[in-house]
Design brief:
The chain has 613 residues and is mainly beta. The chain folds into three domains: 131 residues, no CATH class; 193 residues, Methylamine Dehydrogenase, Chain H, CATH 2.130.10; 123 residues, Immunoglobulins (Immunoglobulin-like, Sandwich). Helices cover 2% and strands 43% of the residues. Strands 46, 47, 48, 49, 52, 53, 54, 55, 56 and 57 form a ten-stranded mixed sheet that branches. A five-stranded antiparallel sheet has the order 8-9-10-11-12, with no helix packed on it. It is globular, with a radius of gyration of 28 Å.
Amino acid sequence: MAVLLWSTLGYGQVLRPEWRKIGSAAVEFSLASPATGAVEQVWFAADGSRLFARAAGRTFVTADFENWESANRFAGGPSMEPASTARLPESGALVVTSPADPGRVYALGQQLYRSEDAGRSWVNLTQNRTASVVGTGQHSLAVSPADRDQLVLANDYGVWRSLDGGLSWVGLNETLPNLMVRRILATPDGAAGARVETAALGVLELPPGGTAWFPAVAARQTVDTEQLAQYSRTIGAEISAIGAAGPTVYAGSRDGRIWVSLDRGTTFRASRTETAGPVESLYVDPVEPRVALAALAGDGAPHVLRTTSSGSLWDDLTGDLPDTAVHGITADRSAGAVYIATNQGVFLAHTDLENATVPVVNWVSLSATLPAAPARDVRLNPAGVQVYAALDGYGVYATAAPHRLWGLKLVSAADYAARPAAPGSLVSVVGGQVSSASGGTMMYPVLSASDRESQIQVPFEAVGPNVALSLETNAGRVTVGLPVEPVAPAIFVSHDGVPMLYDADSGLPIDARNTAHSNARIQILATGLGKVRPDWPTNEPAPPQNPPAVVAAVRVYLDGSPLTVASATLAPGYVGFYLVEAQLPAITNLGTSELYLTADGQESNKVQIVVEQ
């Protein structure tokens, strides 16, 4: 784990970012297996025991044909020999032979072909009806020196292996670090999963809890390519980055200049006229758009800029950052936290984002436990408690946002969203270890506590609309405001958006491996449903038999249609959890659906559920 000494920020603490992989490095394209980006060349070791692949200027090797590791000391391998044949199976196809298989001739085009009679007749090895089972654009073929029926193919969609001379294929892409994510467009949030923009595969989506990325539907491919072109024409410069909040739009150019519009991009004024490296990314505070940050690439130039005055003045926040290109930037203005994605990984700094103070900025690397690869983008989730990073070739990683150790934040324990609490509900205090909590004369039980996060229960007797919550923490006493409403429903989900839904009959969790079925009973774990009848003590597990029922009227909706709710009670054996049981209809839309509940008309977060017949 990474050990970060925070003495430069006056905390003297050790931070340990625990990064986790979000999805794999492969994409589901309805091919023989998940795919990845283009691979230029593949070749076997002389004895056939290892396989090499060359992609995007990097070389990887596998010995078990499943796990890949870096092998950059190999710049390339032997090429197959060009050959001439009686005819081509496809216009423009490259015809080659292999020393390991001299009796056969292969042709690489949109498909892969084999001939055993010098090209007078050809067999298509990859065709499935009119498409290809491995994708198109074949670049390289390797034949094992130990077995001429073992073929490995490199194409626009990755690496593919056949053990039967091309009759069947399987991908070797799920651990190949070749997913070139360029921008994180959205982080997991409720029923929506992560969404990214890639260098060659367009916009991809990762469903909540999913392991493979999918091409985004056309309506969701919201990349700003057209807007970049439009602003380039309006401004008269090559615009490389855009950031906007409300009517305020910032635009940065390839030569480091920045413009600002206060009328949603209709007109622009010059904001920063100095030239430098290209502006790669712009962050605009969604609440205070006068505050913006710019990330710049280039050598020896300013790499991080700040404005707190709608672009009237830009300050250099590069500080002690190594001279490295910065590709992505995000921030938490209230905490003064700035995250950047660079060629040397992910960095964090603390600075004033409210006032035009003279910046003295110290950067701390967060990449000790990440793969050694350039970081292309960084983004905080909507609640500001999780940070996501896109690494060249390796996909997306996430961790608890380290800056939360600078100050506490109250969020829903269900989905880490900043929403009001309700009597009996669970609240997470992110950023510190809480030993006790009280609001006025009322104690708020601390159910669990660590140096990063603590969980407390709101007493059933609590009333709002606001509570001054006094917290005893490892850094002393802190008072924070807690909005309290009669109900504030929320369905529990994991950090990756997987909802806590269960099959009522089997007790198994409902997920991609164990889908729900028509006419089945499902159970939903939630919090924030408010008071129960009969009254129940705070910090007391609900009884296994006849648990107290929710007083509020609870409804459950599937794709907007109401379900029959069998019960809504405290969850037996748990503190602060509620259990709602609902009946799926006998006839329903199959596939992925949207599920949410209401309590006295107040809506919860929306989650995904997969329903099969």
